[in-house]
Amino acid sequence: MNSKNILDKYEADIVKVKAKVVEKDKIIKSLEDQNFELNYFNIEGNEDALGYFEAFGYDTEKLIPAIRDGLYSMNDYEGDEHPIVPYVSMTDSKLLINKVRILNHKWIIANFTDGKHWGEILVSYSIDENNDLKYKLVEYLMYPILN
Q: Structure pTM?
């Protein structure tokens, strides 16, 4: 009798664990789908954009961080005017680029803040004949502060 109770308990536990595994597999699949969608506009998953650079002989594993770092390096500026963000800080803090996403081989989107005010910029970029990165502001916005 005791052995049967133990086997029944193990079988019940196995059923519970299998149900949890099925549930977790569904969650994993959903997260994988969501991750795929979130990374759609991202150079690291864009074979055409990567191929563009590779066709010119660039090592994309070095180039992509350099593109990103070039934009972040603009945060090291003197005075009130940021080199690419067309606003000045309205607080005692400097205006800084926070987050950068390289969309493809031509465009970058980034956000910026002075700690209180937030905005976004769309930037085009290119590599000149001297292999220097050039950035150009295409569009920008500042979010209104809602009280």
A: 0.79
Name 54's Cβ contacts closer than 8 Å, sequence gap at least 6. 60
Tokens, residue 61: 């594993």
Q: Could you report the per-residue pLDDT of 40-91, keeping only the tens digit for each?
A: 889 988 999 999 999 999 999 999 999 999 999 999 999 999 999 999 999 9
Cβ atoms 138, 122 nearer than 8 A: yes
**Amino acid in the structure at residue 79:** G
Contact 69, 95 (CB under 8 A): no
- What the block records as the tokens of 126 is 């290119």
Instruction: Decide if 88 contacts 81 (C-beta within 8 A).
Output: yes
Residue with tokens 């956000």: 111
Contact 90, 114 (CB under 8 A): yes
What span, in angstroms and rounded, lies between the C-alpha atoms of 20 and 92? 52
Distances (CA, A) of 133 to 24, 42, 66, 111, 130: 45, 19, 9, 20, 9
